[in-house]
Amino acid sequence: MGRYILKKIQHSFWTLLGVVTTIFFLFNVLPGDPAQMMLGQNEDQTQLALVNQKYGFDQPVFTQYLNYLNDLSPLSFHSNSSDDYTFLESHSYHYQVLFKSSNKTVVVKLPYLRTSFTKQGKEVSQILIETLPNTIVLAVSSICFALVLGLILGVFSALYKDHWVDKSILVLSTFGMSLPSFFSAILAAWIFGFLLHHYTGLEMSGNLYELDDFGEVYQLKLKNLILPALVLGIRPLAVVTQLMRNSLLEVFNQDYIRTARAKGLSEFQIIIKHAMKNALNPVVTAISGWFASLLAGAVFVEYIFAWNGLGKEIVNALNTLDLPVIMGAVLIIALTFVIINIVVDIIYTYLDPKIKFNL
């Protein structure tokens, strides 16, 4: 197990390096001067020169790329010259010095995602810390809704194969998969948050925590989570339902299921004790991919419901060309995919002991 995890971490490192390289060069070929983006319309040539020097924008692109890797790396190398971008004292992060010479300092630190262009020098890591938990809450709520209801509907659909119950569930799940998130978000906000607001008590927009009527204390508003979570969970719900149905129908044809039925076990016992575990492999695969995708795909839903999450922050950053925020958000999403992939591979071995670790 340990060797397997280390091997997966090694592969993940090269994957993340590829993502970092791609997004860095992708955003650095965009037209526009980063220093000018930071200063807006109030810049002059002196200010531009100072910002370019401070952030290393005046250096060759490949040197900027190495500096970016140096910022992201937990083990980083810094110049002792104040004229260099890598000058240690010009960065605000906490660090531990490992080695220091006359012109170089080696330190250990947390990855540095740089500072926002538009939020008065606010660090990207701080922006992500403030918004990512809201997106995680939204994504987890959506997945839980999709998983619980999807498994139930999938089991019923498999038990009543070719019955009107099965056909109705298949029609609804197909419709759910084809429904764009942004359209269903607008529709749900309009119907349940506006037309039926008097009956539902739900708002068209809102956050997990909001100021009270006196503007003094933040209060937990779980009702604001309902609509965006349900809307975001519609498509994974449809996928889980169909996967569970098809997987159970395949498992029902196995010899050990026939043996269990011959022993007189009820359908409930057969499903729970024998069929469900072996039928969950494709569902786990789908849910793992969907969970990571929800972090990236919640952009439209969060923006429509004004949910203060990572997706809404990405839209704002794109509108203002706040490149460090966009790059930091993409890296977080890529890291989430990598971590979930490792966790799912480990879960597979529990669901199906026949799967061996490929060392």
What would you say this structure looks like, in words?
This protein is mainly alpha-helical and 359 residues long. Helix content is 67%, strand content 6%. It is built from 15 helices and five strands. A three-stranded antiparallel sheet has the order 1-3-2. The longest helix is centred in the middle third of the chain and has 36 residues, at 124-159.
CATH architecture descriptor of the domain at 124-351? Orthogonal Bundle
Number of helices: 15
The total count of strands amounts to 5
Low-confidence stretches: none
Order of helices and strands: HHHHEEEHHHHEEHHHHHHH
CATH topology of the domain at 124-351: MetI-like fold
Distance between the termini: 9 Å
Shape: globular
Helix content: 55-70%
Q: Biggest sheet: strands side by side, in what order?
A: 1-3-2
Largest sheet: 3 strands, antiparallel
Structural class: mainly alpha
Rounded Rg: 25 Å
**What number is the mean pLDDT?**
83
Specify the CATH homologous superfamily of the domain at 124-351. MetI-like
Top CATH class of the domain at 124-351: Mainly Alpha
